[in-house]
Specification:
- With 427 residues, this protein is α/β, with parallel strands linked by helices.
- Strands 9-7-5-2-10-1-11-15-19-20 form a ten-stranded mixed beta sheet, with helices on both faces. Strands 14, 16, 17 and 18 form a four-stranded mixed beta sheet that branches.
- Strand 19 and strand 20 form a beta hairpin.
- The longest helix has 22 residues.
- It is globular and about 65 Å long.
- The mean pLDDT is 97.
- The structure holds guanosine-5'-diphosphate (GDP), 6-O-phosphoryl inosine monophosphate and magnesium ion.
- 6-O-phosphoryl inosine monophosphate (IMO) binds next to helix 4.
Length: 427
């Protein structure tokens, strides 16, 4: 089956946008299936930088179909802003489709996200405050409003007014804050829907027809596996399934329709938001990685926490996603270090463990066991062939492959399209 899934195999921001944009050159269709505009995917083309939050990262090619699948939570305001920015830059966005089933984010979701974070105090998750969790809560609670419902104004009005009444009770009664005027939201969303109409359809049909007619489909993960609501570092996670299985429900495709599963993996580790992080470097090296890798959030601008590559963690994410390949990102950031460390086990209460623990309390007490490798000094950002990489860079890549037992098929040595080394053809 000519389909490729790209998921983040760490805590997000692995460089998914860059590699999706690169591979989209060969694909026909690019599909987002979970999360919302909490994502921040950076794509650099011809020295122009684009940040996509809700739009699939294939949107810069006018001949590719870009789909926002049913599993996404959809903020119309954020979406239209992105469309406006792209169109002002001369990018054709008529190739975008949105599934009629996506759950719509309303202002009360964003407000509850903020209020709930404030009420968590020291235990805050560090959310992006985009209303993602509260919108998924409504979906799971079976009270959420889906985009297709906005097309019938009378129906939408009834649903919205009911929802606002319920949410106002929560916002005013429990959080002691100011509620919303439903008419005001209704009027704004009716304006949005006039612009959105042309994009709304049943995208599961489009994806199925593309797959069965032999078109190349690229499934674009947002966030990262460790942020999965079930399999991630709960509760410091997002509210969706950024794992390969998430594409089946989030895009409405059977698992037998998925071919290759590529894990986007940084050559080190980063994390935004709270929660344990065994290989975190709270020192000068961590600071150097942050500056060299420009590790500041695309969505919130927050400095990202940085640390060495954690093999235990990626072995776990490789297993639960069924990775068939790794795309090793930001390799160039590690140039210049005398020594490079990779974590190949954890020490927990005097014992060595190899499985990433589900229990956060246990994880926070794990100390990494490192394998130390010699670094390389050369600038690798212009290298096009694997053979031309410095010997120590190759040794590092091969050590990762050997540890994970998954081939590293792509190596990214810079943020631009042409800074990509392909060891084995994808598609
Ligand atoms: P995403 O959320 O997984 O799409 O990743 P982000 O875009 O949030 O963060 C990755 C950052 O790394 C962006 O600023 C990219 O432009 C940048 N980037 C991607 N690949 C590379 C690479 O190989 N080298 C360098 N130096 N930067 C890269
Ligand atoms: P991309 O697609 C990194 C994190 C937030 C927070 C937690 C919950 O760019 O890799 P949410 O707003 O989703 O309820 O926040 O998840 N988070 C991300 N971290 N990259 C992302 O997306 C993220 N999306 C959410 O920082 O810790
Ligand atoms: Mg990002």
């Amino acid at each position: 089956m000519p389909s490729v899934v790209i998921i983040g195999a760490q805590w997000g921001d692995e460089g998914k946008g860059k590699i999706i944009d690169y591979l989209a050159g060969k694909a026909d269709v690019v599909v987002r299936a979970q999360g919302g505009n909490n994502a921040g995917h950076t794509v650099i083309v011809d020295d122009k930088k684009y940040a996509f939050h809700l739009l699939p990262s294939g949107v810069l090619y006018s001949d590719k179909q870009n789909i926002i699948g049913n599993g996404v939570v959809f903020d119309p305001e954020g979406f239209l802003k992105e469309i406006d920015i792209l169109e002002s830059q001369g990018v054709d966005t008529s190739n975008v489709m949105i599934d009629e089933r996506v759950h719509v984010i309303f202002p009360y979701h964003k407000k509850i996200d903020v209020l709930e974070e404030e009420s968590r105090g020291e235990n805050k998750i560090g959310t992006t405050k985009k209303g993602i969790g509260p919108c998924y809560m409504d979906k799971i609670e079976r009270s959420g409003i889906r985009l297709g419902e906005l097309l019938d104004k009378e129906h939408f009005k009834n649903r919205l007014f009911q929802q606002v009444e319920r949410k106002n009770k929560l916002i005013e009664g429990f959080y002691e804050s100011q509620g919303f005027d439903p008419q005001e939201i209704y009027d704004i969303y009716c304006q949005y829907v006039e612009r959105l109409k042309k994009y709304i359809t049943d995208t599961t049909v489009v994806v199925y027809e593309a797959l069965t007619s032999g078109k190349k489909v690229l499934f674009e993960g947002a966030q990262g596996t460790l942020l999965d609501i079930d399999l991630g570092t709960y509760p410091y996670v997002t509210s969706s399934h950024p794992t390969s299985g998430g594409f089946c429900v989030g895009a409405g495709v059977g698992p037998n329709m998925i071919g290759e599963v590529i894990g986007a993996v940084k050559a080190y580790t980063t994390r935004v938001g709270s929660g344990p992080f065994p290989t975190e470097l709270d020192d000068e090296i961590g600071g150097q990685i942050r500056v060299k890798g420009n590790e500041f959030g695309t969505t919130t601008g927050r400095p990202r926490r940085c640390g060495w590559f954690d093999g235990v963690m990626v072995k776990y994410t490789s297993r639960i996603n069924g990775l068939t390949a790794v795309s090793l990102m930001l390799m160039d950031v590690l140039s210049g270090f005398d020594k490079i460390k990779m974590c190949i086990g954890y020490e927990y209460k005097g014992e060595v463990i190899q499985h990433f623990p589900a229990d956060l309390n246990k994880l926070s007490q794990c100390t990494p066991i490192y394998k130390e490798l010699d670094g390389w000094k050369e600038d690798i950002t212009q290298i096009e062939k694997y053979e031309d990489l410095p010997i120590n860079a190759k040794k590092y890549i091969e050590a990762i492959e050997e540890y994970l037992q998954v081939p590293v098929k792509i190596i990214s040595v810079g943020p631009k399209r042409n800074q990509t080394i392909i060891r084995e053809t994808i598609f």
